[in-house]
Amino acid sequence: MKWRMLFIPDGPYGDRARGKMYEPYLKAYGNNFKVGAQAFIFNPNGLSVGDNVYIGFNSYLGQGEVELASEVLIGNFVSITATNHLIKGDSFRFGGFSPSKIKIGYGTWIGAQSSIVAGVEIGSSCLVASGSVVTQNVKDGIVVGGVPAKQISTVKKFKEKYNVE
């Protein structure tokens, strides 16, 4: 799949073209799926996406099952991996892995350079601040940030602060 992407231009038309190229391999997909340049989906057969989903430049969606609801926005350099390594003896190298589904709700924005670990569910209309590591579930309408990510505000307060509806 990676070699096919070499001849696709950067920018909005290229993002849509990359999304179209992934569609036949996805578990499920909606309309207008876009994938930024150099983003990599390791296991497209485990990925379900809704309408108007965007995966940012150089992001990585790893092994395991991932569900992205409609209008999810994934920033640049984001890592979403729905598996954890297991230990065998004293080493993680050949211990295998344990899958645990990740779900991201409608209209959620995952900020650049964030990581979402296996088994996490992020609700609808959430905001994950850049550089966060999300290790626990996030309820609808919550703003989280930090390592590990903790609630820092609500989307309602964010909208009031920036005077948006």
Pick out its properties:
165 residues; UDP N-Acetylglucosamine Acyltransferase, domain 1; 5-stranded parallel beta sheet; 2 helices
Question: How would you portray this structure in words?
Answer:
The chain has one domain: UDP N-Acetylglucosamine Acyltransferase, domain 1, CATH 2.160.10. 11% of the residues lie in helices and 28% in strands. It has two helices and 18 strands. It has a seven-stranded mixed sheet with strand order 1-4-7-12-15-17-18. It has a five-stranded parallel sheet with strand order 2-5-8-13-16, with no helix packed on it. A four-stranded parallel sheet has the order 3-6-11-14, with no helix packed on it. A hairpin with a 4-residue loop joins strand 17 (142-145) and strand 18 (150-154). The mean pLDDT is 94.
